[in-house]
Specification:
There is one protein chain. The chain is α/β, with parallel strands linked by helices. It has two domains: 4-31 and 284-413, Lyase, Ornithine Decarboxylase, Chain A, domain 1 (Beta Barrel); 33-281, Alanine racemase (TIM Barrel, Alpha-Beta Barrel). It is 28% helix and 24% strand. The strands form three sheets. Strands 4, 14, 15, 16, 17, 18, 19, 20 and 21 form a nine-stranded mixed beta sheet that branches. An eight-stranded parallel beta barrel has the order 5-6-7-8-9-11-12-13, surrounded by four helices. A three-stranded antiparallel beta sheet has the order 1-2-3. β12, α9 and β13 form a beta-alpha-beta unit. It is globular and about 70 Å long. The protein binds ligand LLP. Residues 58, 60-61, 79, 102, 162, 199, 202-203, 237-239, 276-280, 315, 319, 375-376, 380 line the site of ligand LLP. Ligand LLP is lined by residues 58, 60-61, 79, 102, 162, 199, 202-203, 237-239, 276-280, 315, 319, 375-376, 380.
Amino acid sequence: MHHFVYCNGVLHAEDVPLPQIAAEVGTPFYCYSSATITRHYLVFREALKGLDPSIYFAMKANSNLAVLRTLADLGAGCDVVSGGEFQVALTAGVKAAKIVFSGVGKTDEEIQLAVAGGVGQINVESEAELASVSRIASALGKTVRIALRVNPDVAAGTHDKISTGRKEDKFGIDWSLVPGLYRKARALPGISATAIAVHIGSQITSLAPFEAAFTKVRDLTLQLRAEGFEINHLDLGGGLGIPYDHLSNTTPPSPAEYGDMVRRVLGGLGCKLSFEPGRLIVGNAGIMVAKVVVMKDSPAKKFAIVDAAMNDLVRPAMYGARHEILPVIEAPLSPGLTPVDVVGPICETSDRFAQDYPLPPLKAGDLVAFMTAGAYGASMSSAYNSRPLIPEVMVQGDRYAVVRRRPSLAEMLALEQLPPWLADEPKGA
Ligand code: LLP
């Protein structure tokens, strides 16, 4: 469920017509619905009721301050994967104690920053990292809660590039090494190894892989407890998929079904349970709006070339992801839909949002919305082709605000300079 709907034939974000935003901020832009973010967070929390869950929003999905503050105000913490994300989360108003630091390659500087700042938990991914966290925390005179992120060797059944829980993946600690590492952790100063973390991938559309991984985690918890370890926290990661594309029939499990499964598998352990959803919270809460630059017909294909490109929304180029595309002005019933390739202006064939996508007749200047772009949209964008990062707008009811403006070219260039040997006037003819 989201709050992007047609009203009198015009696509709105909550109560704001999208053409109004386009006229003010220019295209392309991202648009977030505050009500949708709130709703998704509350639906997820409700699905976990009775489990006393801690919800850490995986801010790699969307690190805009307004999004983070909206969630922080609802009580969410953040799952961060870099020193940068840690600082952005704090800036957004998330308390350090409500931050979990994940990631497979934390530097000493990042660990130092997080521990000194009072991070709530560090999810450790290797023996060497365990030693670093212990060394850094003890030097700071602190004790930090750590989880070992375990690799359960479970295939998530999702896109290969976003599967993270198979034993050949770089993530987590190999199952066979886990008990030995807890034994080592017990002897180390500066850490309290009372948690287990697991995350097997993203956009997972079936409960079975989650259940397989969580069952292994339950058995591990019991095994470690039998050996005298105190395990009282389980961090179950994120990964629950969302519906993207009305042309495909994939219906991921609902949060309620996910919650029931978690309750069944892990409910009786007496552990505090943490979750790190990203996509589920913000995916459907954001869209990208672009303008048709030109329509191009060839005997083989019909192309709609829009002013957004793979640098703005990379998911179709990177994962073959399919985002629903809606004309901002609702299409009349006739003359019906024709297949169109919707592409950007970048000189790469992969700069294609959709192939043979059924769309009503479009012309230059028309606006189209790429749906379900709130997760891994803006946060993965780049300035490839010297295209400035596009603005982000948040809507709440009938009001909206630009929450990240488009940088000027001067701002983009301010980070570059010519070396002294090239600083004279250009010598070209
Ligand atoms: N926790 C950890 C440790 C993660 O690595 C991730 C995502 C999450 C939580 C959140 O997963 P989610 O609930 O959003 O599925 N760029 C890709 C997705 C990459 C996900 C990486 N890890 C995409 O656009 O599909």
